[in-house]
Amino acid sequence: MADVSRGPNLAASIEASLERRAATVLARRGWRPTPVVYDTYGRAAVDGEGGWIRLLCRVLVMPPTARRSAEGRSRGFRRYLSVSAPDLPVRVRIGDTVHRVRTEPGGYLDVRLPVNLPAGQHEVHVEVPGGADPGRGRVDVVDPAIGRGVVSDIDDTAMITLLPSPLQAFWNTFVMQEGQRRPVPGMATFLGRENQGFIVYVSTGAWNYAPVIRHFLDRYEFPAGALILTDWGPSAQRWFRSGLEHKRTQLRRLREEFPELRWVLVGDDGQRDPGIYAEFAAEFPQAVDTVAIRTLTPAEHLLTAGTPLAPDELARRVPVVGLEGRDPAEIPDGVRQLRGGDGNALVVASL
To answer: How far is CA 156 from CA 60, 89, 306, 332, in A?
Structure first.
């Protein structure tokens, strides 16, 4: 039997080789490695257990004057024109602690670093040899005694995008600028009411877009939190990374890292959020406090999926591959369920 992973693995290897060669050529032209640090989270030291932070960062090779593009302040398509710097030594400083690590394929860093910090917001600095100015990012260090955390989707939950209609997706991703994006009415208020000090925004969007999302959340006064996105390129297992598996994996990771917390899971019914959250709640009922779903209108469903029915409604007729046919009706008793057309309706439902 042929090895089905051989193609994606070969593609990922070719991509990494091209990135290394491109980085070498551009370095001769004066381009320098530039770290872009994403908002992330950590755990405070409690009950004799040491604390840590999760560092999320990417190192890109670019002209010395091009940090504006890396930070997401340029028009959409320019954010995707970048060359990464894999296998590069990196110096990480947070508080009085210094760590040295190396970038992974794609120039990414996703590592857990031991550091004892009090609960609250802290700044992390990332430097690379021969690079531009250090990259800076925000880390929310969490005391698990808060008891509850929030996980929120972004597209069509916090930000109106109406994906994945192909034309709309192209326009939103590669043309539209950050200032033109609109928030879902009332969602910042709803998330602010549910937030007790720890919120994580999880999206299937590409990491290139993280700075734009951060600016959007700040502009419309959403609660500050960590951003967990993904990469669109090939991996050793797949030609394209699975958004479904990305959200599943991140939910389980958060549960393992913070077993004391119960989670408020916020999403929309334009894609697979209801099924993903229902599956997680059925598997870990004691870890879920609330499942809150923004319900799209039939017209919005028609734009996003080509049908006026929500995916969980379709699942009652055709099982959803990879979700074992589960839908919100299978969420265990004792888990609060909220539904509404926007954040204002969810606030009312929560009352």
So the answer is: 29, 38, 16, 25
